[in-house]
Each structure stands twice: as structure tokens, then as C-alpha cells.
Amino acid sequence: MPQFFSLEEALKYYFGYETFRPGQRQIVETALQNRDLLILMPTGGGKSLCFQLPALLKPGLTVVVSPLISLMQDQVAALRNNGIAATFINSSLGREQVRSREAAILQGKVKLLYIAPERLLGERFLPFLEQLHSNVGISAFAIDEAHCISQWGHDFRPEYRQLRQLRQLYNGVPVLALTATATKVVREDIIQQLALRQPDVHIASFNRPNLYYDVQPKQKQSYFQLLKLVKQNEGAGIVYCLSRKKVEEIAFRLEKDGIAALPYHAGMSDEDRTNNQTRFIRDDVRIIVATIAFGMGIDKPDVRFVIHYNLPRNLEGYYQESGRAGRDGEPANCTLLFGFGDLKTIEYLIEQKPDVREQKVAIQQLRKVVDYAEGTDCRRKIQLSYFGERFGGNCGNCDNCRHPKPIEDWTIEAQKFLSCVVRCQERFGVKHIIDVLRGANNKKVEQYGHHLLSTYGIGREKSADQWKMLARSLLHQGLLDETTDGYRTLKLNDRSREILKSQRSVEIPVETTVTTKVLAENPKSIEAEILFQRLRSLRKQIADEQSVAPYAILGDSSLKLMSRQRPQTLEEFEKISGISPHKKDLYGARFVSEIEQHIKEQAQHLSTESNFLPELESKGASYTQLLTLNLHQQGLSLEEISASRQLRVSTIATHLAELIALNLPVDLERLVSQSRQEAIVKAIEAVGVDSLKIIHEHLGEQCGYEEIKLVRAWWLHQHQN
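Request: output the structure for the sequence above.
Response:
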């Protein structure tokens, strides 16, 4: 093992980073002291490094418990690409492969072993584990996705319960429990179930500042709303649906509309699910359409957007699913389409649960999601308050903060509401309090004698929806509490009492008009982005050669730094964050060569680029069209542009057709021969311009859809001017 003067030196040697992310150094130091740890760190926060680096610095082997085969394989591939001795043992391996890996482990050639909980404590593996402990030594057990051990967690897995045996069998070996999401109840359950001994609990902020959160009312033609969102976003994306049937339908329709998409749900065979997931992770397709069966532990850092086509069942699950976007720290979009039809579907599914208490908890969790979707406060404030974290609001990166509603003083209304909660003896939920305030004449109000209260009917001037809006805002701002036992009973806190004593005012955002919500803007350097796309293509080529995911070669953040700094020597290349000495030796020459070639080509096209960019910007072309036009003007064909940008040929043709419509310099002669242009024009004059399909049928197999699309755009431009 190399000798290091500091943890930062070890970090650079193994992982290529100069500095730790917030909280990582403290956790690593604690782990090196052989302490038990409970680590809550949001997706993309770097929690894997918190057990990987100590594993490399301590004698013996670290056993990593992981729930999914794909997650094990991805993390091991990424570690090996950094020259780190890691392996996994799971059902994907044959008997001889397992024996070979076990032999390497017993010879001390492996530092990290990834394994599923069922196999770890299985009858056959336990004797090997004991042999390993005696001969090599177990430095730590790292329990990834630790929320799975808790029945209060959103991904409860009964097989995780047996992990408690680790403490009994290996009392002196430290246990590190890691998860991205856990409420206070789940945290306490994890500690109890794993029998952690006075663990050092590290809770990082749940805030993911690079994610843009957006809720949009679900339109009647919801598929076309989804299609527009997918086209607005670049890069890889996940679309979550509620049912297997909807997953299949959406994936099929996206594919028909020229978007490379695949389905993923529990009804598919293991082979098909694994194949589709692998193709998505390796950038062979752009979109995965999935139920919640997809995602836990998916180690793909460059997902640029997540769209929930249907309402999620709970806020914890939504945070985890949307959090699969932007794990590399780069900007990403998270959009929820909110429709009341989905609400009724989920309520029906909840009613099918046999346990009445489970039903109540599930309904309460669902109401939290509705509160989030209908909320007018900062989306982050709502999310973080769910996990017990206070946030000041006005994050600047959600729809409610970018397009804020007017702020009004509702102190008097808040005092009425809280007074009613007190007079109802803090035993009821929002709906009942509103019924009392608005003077409802129903059985429940009369049954408890609440029609006789002084607060009965004092809130008739506000609608039920307005009172709900106030209640949600009070809860989101921490000015009122609510029980978590499935009944949603309202309880006053110290801040509530300050309001009643007129020691604190209440201001809330009020929905007055429907606002248009837009996706996050992400201004980029055009030239750097062109080089970034080129480096992505090279990375994909190298990844395919090695049959690994592209991010296992280099992360997007490293490529973006490279595209801005343009290193032209191996020494400069190694200074890029994320480049370890091992990766410099493996890939440095190829990336440096690609950058040098790009610089030469850009110099040749500099004059052309300086002429068309101002014109392009002034005519309102989009950023993605600009990238396509740049490559077109460099002489690339449709197919070459498609390969470079990792987009379909039909998408590139659409870009160029739109650029023709803007009267920007697209060389139609190079794209469609003169004879084919003439044939397409004759067909347009014969059958009309409205339908590509009709024009194509009239021509037979003479011309392709892309050619027709381009010529039709030229024809329309000529006849509109």
C-alpha cells in the first residue's frame, strides 16, 4: 500500500480529486477510528467514497452489502477503472467464477467485496466469511441503501432484517450504514435493527441545489405534454409511470416519435430488465420509462432530467426518484405532472391493503405529496421540512421561486385557524378544522359539539381551498406541527403560540393566477459544449470497447472541465478533477489527441463560425439547433452529426428543417440531391404540404422522411416570403 502524508493525497491518488466534498473528510476520519456510523447523504453527495477510501487505507477487506446486481457491477467497474482491487459475488456468476474470486479474496488481492444480504448470511457463504475474517481480516461492513432495513422506509426489504446477525457474529467489526433518504423514524429504526453501538450519525443537508423542481398541471393530452418536455431537455432522462401498462405505452409512443426509449418494470423478465437498464446506463438509448421498480442504487450520474408522468405515492419516494437526476452536480430538471385522476388511482390501490393501519399511513403519505404539488411555497422548503430540515426558502431554482405568487399578510387568518385547533383540543386534522371555521353543518362537527365553539363559522369569508393553502403554508414554514401516526392530527408548537400572542406575523404566497412554468435555463459556452459532445463520443467509444458504462471511464464534470480548459499535455490532463494517475495512464493520450484535433479543426472554421453565430442568435434559433448547425457547417453528414451528438438522424433532420425555416445557412444541396429535391417538390404540389406521410406514400420508396422534411421546410419558407 502506498504511503500518504494526508487524506487529500490519498484521495487524489485513488480517485483523482483534490478536495473532499462537504462532510466526507470527517466521515472518513471517523471510519478510520473503527467507529460505527450512520451516514445520510443525498444522492450525488459522494457517500460511496465514505466507505471506499477507508477500505483502501485500512488492513483487511471491506464487505459492502448492496441490494441490486446492477449496482454492484457498476460500482465495481468504476473502482477497477481507478485501479482499485474490488469485486462482487452474486447470482450472475458461474460456480467457477465464484471460486476464483473467493480464492483471490483469501489471498488478500481484494480490498472491497460487494455482495447481496441473502448471500452474505447464507449457509454456504458463512463458513467462507469466517475463513476470510481469520485469514485476511474484515475491516468493516458497509450497508448501502440502509433504509431498506426499516419497515418505515419506502423500500423496505425483509431480507435486510437478517443483517443484525453481523453484530452477533463479528462483534468487533465496525458497521457503516449509508442511505440517501431517511426520516427521523427510519434513522432510529436503522440504528436499532443493525444494533449500531453509539454510532456517529452524520446527516448532510438534503438540499440538492443543482436540481430544478417544477410541478405542472397534467393536461388532457398528457402524452404530448410529456413529449414536449422530453424534446425540451437534452441528455439522458427517466420517465416514471404508475403502472406497467402505462410504461409500455409511453415507451412505445416515444420510440414512434423518434425518441430512443425503453421500458422497465417488474413484469418483464430479469434478462429484459437487465438488458434495458444496461443500454440506458451505457447511453445506447436516451430515455428509460419505468415504474418505481427502476432506480434504487442506479449509479448513472449524468441523468439530466426526471419526469413523473403520474403522481408518486409518497414524498420520500419522490425525493429519491427525482434525485436520480444530476448526481454529477450538473444542472438537471425534475418535473411532476399533477393530475387528480392519478390521485384516485393511488387511493384505490391503498384501499386494497389488508392492514388498516398501513392504509392510514399510506393515505397520510399521499396527502403530503398533494400538499407538495399544490403548494405555493418554495419546493425545497416543502421537501426539506419533510425530512426535518429547515430551509429559508427562495431557493431560486424551482417554479414557485422563479415565478413567485404574491405574498400577503394572513396573520389574522392564521390566528383564527390556530385558535380553532386549540378549541378542538389538538385532536383533529386540517379538514375538520376547516369545516368548523366555515360553519359546516355535518354529523362529525355536531357529534363533538364543535358547532358550539366560538370559532364555529368565523372563517366563512374564505373558501375551503384558501384555508387549505394557509394550513399547508403553516406546516411548511414550521408554524404548526402534524402527527405522523397515520391520522395527521394538528398540534401547536412554540411558534404557533407566538402567532396567537401576536408576537409573530404570518406571510404566505397566495395563488391568484395560473403562471406559466418553464424549465431551468442553463447558459453554456457554445464552443466548449461542442468539444464536450466530441469528448462524450470518444468516452462512449472507449466504454463500448471495455463493455462498461461511460461514466466508469470519466464523469461528465471531468469532461466539462476538459472542454473548458482544453489540456494538451498529459501533465495538464492529470490536473483535471477526477483524473487519477491510473486514469491518466489509461486514457490521457486519447483524450489529449482528441482535444488537439478539435483545436485544429476549430481554427479552420473560425471565420465561418464568427459569421453565423450572431445571425443565429438574432433569429431566435435554439441552443440545440446551434450545435447541429455548427457541425453541419463543418461538413458533417446527417449520420455523422447524429453519431457525434448521440441523437437520432430524424432529430438532426428536424433541427436542420427548423433552421431552414429561420432562413439560416443550411446547405440543402449537400443534404438532398437536386433530382430528389425536384421529385419532392412535385409531390408537394400534387398532394399538399400538410402530411409527411402522404408525401412519402405518393413518392413510394423514392425518398426518405428526412429528405422530405428538409425540402418541405425549404418549400414552405419560399412560399411564405
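Residues 581-604 form the longest helix (24 residues).
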